[in-house]
From TrEMBL:
Protein's recorded name: Transmembrane 9 superfamily member
Topology term for the membrane: Multi-pass membrane protein
Record-stated family: Belongs to the nonaspanin (TM9SF) (TC 9.A.2) family.
UniProt subcellular location: Membrane
GO cellular component terms attached to this protein's record: membrane
Keywords: Membrane, Signal, Transmembrane, Transmembrane helix
Biological processes annotated in GO: protein localization to membrane
Organism (species): Dermatophagoides farinae (American house dust mite)
Pfam families linked to this entry: EMP70
Transmembrane segments: 280-302, 347-370, 382-405, 417-441, 447-473, 504-526, 538-564, 576-595, 607-630
Amino acid sequence: MTIKNSKHENVMLNDNIEQNLQILMNNNKRTGQKSSQQSILMRTSEYSQMNRKYFRPLSVFRRRTSLLFLSLMLLMAQIPLGASDEHEHIYEDNEEVVLWMNTVGPYHNRQETYGYFSLPFCRGPKKGISHYHETLSEAIQGVELEFSGLDIRFKVNMEKTPFCKITMTKKNYHTFEFAIKNYYSYQMYIDDLPIMGSVGYLDETDSTAVYFFTHKKFDIGYNGDQIVDVNMTSEGKVRLEIGQEIEFSYEVNWKSSSVHFEDRFDKYLDPNFFQHRIHWFSIFNSFMMVIFLVGLVTMILMRTLRKDYARYNRDEELDDMDRDLGDEYGWKQVHGDVFRPPAMPMLFSLMIGCGYHIAFVTLLVIIFAIMGDLYTSRGSILSVAIFVYAAASPVNGYFGGSLYAQFGGKHWIKQMFWSAFAIPLIVCGTAFFINFIAIYYHASRAIPFTTMLAVASICIFIILPLTLVGTVLGRNISGQSNNPCRINAVPRPIPEKKWFMEPLVIVILGGILPFGSIFIEMYFIFTSFWAYKIYYVYGFMLLVFLILAAVTSCVTIVCTYFLLNSEDYRWQWTSFMAGASTSIYVYLYSFYYFFFKTKMYGLFQTVFYFGYMALFSIALGIMCGTFGYMGTKSFARKIYSTVKID
């Protein structure tokens, strides 16, 4: 598949993407042509052996440990059993092996996909399986598996066999011409192993010549009674011409392989990209930032607080006549207002509850991804995320409900409803808008109505009741306010202060360091989602998650100290928004990534990209804001419980 690169594009990223696509396409060569891309394919087996030897990510023990959770996940995902044993991955000789056709779409727009047979391809003659019934997560992700109609038998070689013909009408010609000129590629599955191929290619010497591939050659490796490797080579190039009759054919070659079943996905991974020294350096750099910030907070704040304590204690020993009222300044002066409920307490409490919820779900999903090879199954990460989010709803209710009770809120049922549905409404609202565009484009990303009903049912019958349980527990266990200081009846006026002490300035500056600790990891995450990479280094992600929590807490503690020292007691929203501002920088970075690191184009892909990047940034902002509030609340309670208050 020839892809022309602009001289102004990022060469490093494009090379990585094209290399990974060619690994997935598995020797998709052109007859009679020898290109540099084919040399990459020649090294695939050596690359896989090195990958298994040095970068095998998980042990068999952890794979078995994850089976218990995955079995529970399957109950909710409602994964059906299809023909053959592609879910158990065990075959008998001469047993049918199903070739599923998934989607087709432009190479540069990974999310702009359409059903394989939306192009005028023809099916094989074999009948009996009409459509693959996808799971909830696969339906959301646009997986649209349809039976190819090709007869493939386990360990049975097949010579070149024609299976259908089409006539290249004018409409078909223009359809295929458009697909080839936009570098359309398609995806297939055999035994859950992905295969990619190109529809055709353009002749670099003749811009009017469009060539079409008509022959699929499958080389399938087996180890015992399991399939461990699948390669597909596109051959039989034919120049497109109106009125011609095109015959499609395929052949199958089986060969014994020494690859173990648990290692069969290693060939799709790219350790040279994800475990590059830059990645390691960014983790080390972020870790050193954490040590520096923790040391800074400990040294400066403790030293400063020690002086504050000494000054306040000295003032307490003086008589009222001897005390210099001019020395009455600092964070102690707002002790009667510092624990006053913030503005809009219901909104604040539900944001904190959602932040705890998102953080808990993120941590669990990362841990489950480390324990098991979730990247080897279609939609498994999303299935786990949906399952954990629904099951962890009591976390949202507990922390949000208890905080609202501490603020003295009376409308706890309303708060509980908003806490349960806030994130689902934001996600579903954005997805619903994007869905309209997907329907207009007839894209496979269009979410079916039945899937929408399934998501709504999960929200109503699982998330809402569990959030109610958490809210009741939170109000009864932690709902009592136990602030170390009494709250004055009349709010203290906030004095004027320097411009850099204003909450807005603190919020804008508060997200810079947390963003600096994660922006390298954002590049790898974006590339794995928006380009052709499989993210599997979840150990790195766990470290970055912990580093982000620590950096955000330290930064907001420092910001809050200066805010309180300027006698401004509006620290709750300030600490939350200072942490949440990290998401603003992440969203701005997504613009840079879109324009300088990708070649995405078109309305659908653009709306899809910025819509879901907005969702990601909102979730990240709520989580980081909660990190900031958690650290700041502990800090405020600590300093005001230590100083003597009249």
